[in-house]
Write a structure and sequence with these properties.
Elements (H helix, E strand, L loop, with lengths): L1 H14 L2 H18 L3 H21 L2 H4 L1 H21 L3 H27 L4 H8 L5
Length: 134
């Protein structure tokens, strides 16, 4: 456990930005609590979340030149991350995952409905469908 935490701290130290570190830590805590992640799985989860943050950092510059491409890539990163997390879970944790996803889908559907009523862009609607809010 100490090695895992030390590894996370080391990787986060090199990330260079407090916001990134905070995001990964918050997600680690959320998923650890929500899905009852075991000690052995924490290292896997950490790698997944750090990879997600690195991928988001890689595409950040695209946001300035091509918003549609940036949003598409961002959505794909979020979908891939969810898939990776789901693949590491055991049967019991998958039940928690499905409950979490069900609640998320309901919240996302409400957001999509509100966005459509306000004539939001298709990109905003697509983002909301997978839970990316600005």
């Amino acid at each position: 456990m100490k090695r895992i935490l030390a590894f996370i701290a080391l990787v986060l130290a090199f990330s260079g930005a407090f916001g990134q570190e905070s995001t990964v830590q918050e997600e680690m805590q959320f998923f650890s609590k929500t899905l009852a992640i075991e000690t052995e799985q924490r290292a896997q989860l950490s790698k997944i979340l750090i990879r997600k943050q690195a991928q988001l950092d890689e595409i950040a510059s695209i946001a300035q030149t091509d918003q549609d491409l940036y949003r598409e890539k961002r959505r794909n990163i979020h979908i891939g991350t969810e898939h990776s997390i789901k693949m590491m879970l055991d049967e019991n944790q998958l039940k928690h995952w499905h409950t979490y996803q069900s609640k998320s889908r309901k919240a996302n559907a409400e957001k999509v409905t509100a966005l459509k009523r306000s004539n939001a862009s298709m990109q905003d609607v697509l983002d909301a469908q997978i839970g990316i809010y600005h």
